[in-house]
Amino acid sequence: MPVSKPCHVNCIVPPHLLDKLLESEHDEVRQAAMNTLLTTTRLRGERGVRALFAGAVAPGNGRRTVFDCKHSTFLPGAEVAQVEDGPPSGDPSVTRAFDGLGKTRDFYRQVLRRDSLDDRGMRQDGYVHFGRKFNNAFWDGREMIFGDGDGRMFTDFTGSLDVIAHELTHAVTEFTAGLAYHNQSGALNESISDVFGSLVKQWSLNQPAEAADWLIGAEIFTPEVDADALRSMKNPGHAFDNALFGRDPQPDHMSRFVHLPDSEPGDFGGVHINSGIPNKAFYLTAIRIGGFAWQAPALIWYESLKASDVETQFQDFADTTYQKAGQLYGADSTEQLAVLAAWQEVGIQISGVPVGLARVRSLAADRSDGAGREDGLTALHQQIGALAAQVSGLAKEVSSLQGSK
């Protein structure tokens, strides 16, 4: 089983947003941000130890247990609040966490035929009311942790299904590719969690790709914060733009890739920032294919994740999605052409597919009916014919020059 190295606590709120809160004019906002950052730093050390035992977790048929931390950060002291087949809890945070764990488990089981997070029935444990005014939610390598938010900037993190599914998907990534949490592999790690976080929400709402909002964490900001969400897969770089957080720094094209230090202050090379590029590629793929994004697009991305490894880069993953689309749905199928055009639009050319040929083929992916594919092939044949004519002309010229000697 591949394991990501170095090990990290995978938090939903990126450090650059918490850093901005340290500049707030309100003492309580600054203090909450500082406490969140300090607690997260401490947990990173514990995460390395927990990862050593992650594979030793006994199978449990995906059974859920939600614990109440009662505002402590000492997990062993948390109390059981709700269990599988047990009575419902009267605590809304417990209920939301329990339901979110279940919907994520059921999505992977019913849609992708995956038996819990590790594909071996791993039990799912969630901890709510973690700390005081803790502005984050995270997967620590063994369980899901939810803060209540500070009530001023952030609300209870159990309130967003895509956040819950995002964090649990970090576990799926650990047990498949084990994508290293830094630079491009780390940004891809974050993107995979955004993709399946959004898909779990779309699946639970029975939404087609065109009807989805493609937002991550739309519910966790308080009403006084002028922001749509933490991230937008449809429009990376446009999730927020306000005096408090500044402008959403996510790029949507390789030409705008953000180079940051591979360190904690640098978000380990911008893993929460550059994830906007593969996020956009998935969104474009889903829209071009049409229908439900949790069907063909999800399967292509899931199979590509399983075929990836620790240091897979954007180019590697793009190439794999193109290959998997061809294996699953056929060469030059609507699905494969959609993948090709999507990566091309974010500035990544599929290896082995010449740029000119990719452009011709992508014409078919921009059409919703069969005419697009036919027109694309016609244009390809015309281009090949023109090239053949040029070669023939050059051959005649060479022959003529040789004959004149």
TrEMBL record:
Domain Peptidase M4: 100-174
Active site annotation, chain numbering: 167, 272
InterPro entries from the UniProt entry: Metalloprotease_M4 (IPR052759), Peptidase_M4 (IPR023612), Peptidase_M4/M1_CTD_sf (IPR027268), Peptidase_M4_C_domain (IPR001570), Peptidase_M4_domain (IPR013856)
One Pfam family, short name: Peptidase_M4_C
Cofactor or coenzyme needed: Zn(2+)
Domain Peptidase M4 C-terminal: start-end pairs: 177-348
Swiss-Prot/TrEMBL keywords: Hydrolase, Metal-binding, Metalloprotease, Protease, Secreted, Zinc
Chief localization: secreted
Signal sequence extent: none
GO BP annotations, alphabetical order: proteolysis
EC numbers on record: 3.4.24.-
GO molecular-function term, one example from the UniProt record: metalloendopeptidase activity
Cellular component, GO annotation: extracellular region
Compartments where found: Secreted
Enzyme class: hydrolase
Gene3D superfamilies per UniProt: 3.10.170.10, Neutral Protease Domain 2
Protein's job: Extracellular zinc metalloprotease.
Family: Belongs to the peptidase M4 family.
Protein name: Neutral metalloproteinase
